[in-house]
Amino acid sequence: MTTPFQIADRPIGSEHPPFIIAEMSGNHNQSLNRALEIVDAAADSGAHALKIQTYTPDTMTLDISEGDFFISDDSTPWKGTSLYDLYKVAMTTWEWHAPIMERARERGLICFSSPFDATAVDFLEELDVPAYKIASFENADIPLIRKVAATGKPIILSTGMATLAELDETVRTLREFGCEQFVLLKCTSTYPATPENSNVLTVPHMQELFGCQVGLSDHTLGVGAAVAAVAHGATVVEKHFTLDRAEGGVDSTFSLEPEEMRQLVIETERAWQSLGCVRYGPGEAEKPSMRFRRSLYIAQDMKAGDVLTEENLRSVRPGMGLAPKYLDHLLGRRVKDHVVAGTPMSWELLG
């Protein structure tokens, strides 16, 4: 049984609708005004939180444009640029953090960030963020995880690429440094990801192994994988978010637009509502429908002593007579009194 907890005033757990995070990442396209528009659009879509990222190019990599530091992989949307130039374009300027977080508070959104090194954690502590996110590429950075865990804030950690042994070490580190309020997000670190490599069945397995809340960091297109994850117990869903994919941006190709985010919020909550509990038999809402089951009715006027046959005793709707399973037992029996067509069959009619 996983223990629920809160991020700011929002409860996280299976007894509550899934916590939906809109990830801005670099979709601000180097514009604070666009970043603030993304905040407003996330709030209007019904998302519960907005997440940003805290780093500089120099805290992420070296200013080298060749060899290991140049992206030539055809499978990524960032082919043809250096790591340094990518992070220079994608970074959220640190001076923007305060106005972004203030706008989020005004719009009722919980706002927090992914720090990528110790200086980012110190900066975010000055802003008193309510939680932290550890990105997949940092989930094995034990020194960073120790520092974040020591803040005492809730942590959401993406598990992309991590082996079971690495995750075990990470979770042990979180707990050793005092963090029990954390969520592991099943994540596939491809951009975009496909439904086929999402493997959402890992969600309940991870819950059982680590005894914690588990969610999904989803890079697929659409909302299907997220809905499936919620159906398997995910309590948090994170999706990259943009105003318009056609306007471009470092993450735009696998980001949701506002109407899609609205559908994500609606459909994941519906999936959560549909889980219910294990039960059989008619629920309270179904009881009025019981009358539309089939049952046995007298189909022709009958006189006292007449024999029940397949012509005068039929299985029809509604369901106010004896169940159809008794038909063979009743055929050949006699009625004791005059009976009109449309009378529900009962044992009292027999002679």
UniProtKB/TrEMBL annotation:
<dbReference type="InterPro" id="IPR006190">
    <property type="entry name" value="SAF_AFP_Neu5Ac"/>
</dbReference>
<dbReference type="GO" id="GO:0016051">
    <property type="term" value="P:carbohydrate biosynthetic process"/>
</dbReference>
<dbReference type="InterPro" id="IPR013785">
    <property type="entry name" value="Aldolase_TIM"/>
</dbReference>
<dbReference type="InterPro" id="IPR013974">
    <property type="entry name" value="SAF"/>
</dbReference>
<dbReference type="Pfam" id="PF08666">
    <property type="entry name" value="SAF"/>
</dbReference>
<feature type="domain" description="AFP-like">
    <location>
        <begin position="295"/>
        <end position="351"/>
    </location>
</feature>
<dbReference type="InterPro" id="IPR013132">
    <property type="entry name" value="PseI/NeuA/B-like_N"/>
</dbReference>
<dbReference type="InterPro" id="IPR051690">
    <property type="entry name" value="PseI-like"/>
</dbReference>
<dbReference type="Pfam" id="PF03102">
    <property type="entry name" value="NeuB"/>
</dbReference>
<protein>
    <submittedName>
        <fullName>N-acetylneuraminate synthase</fullName>
    </submittedName>
</protein>
<dbReference type="InterPro" id="IPR036732">
    <property type="entry name" value="AFP_Neu5c_C_sf"/>
</dbReference>
<dbReference type="InterPro" id="IPR057736">
    <property type="entry name" value="SAF_PseI/NeuA/NeuB"/>
</dbReference>
<dbReference type="GO" id="GO:0047444">
    <property type="term" value="F:N-acylneuraminate-9-phosphate synthase activity"/>
</dbReference>
<dbReference type="InterPro" id="IPR020030">
    <property type="entry name" value="Pseudaminic_synth_PseI"/>
</dbReference>
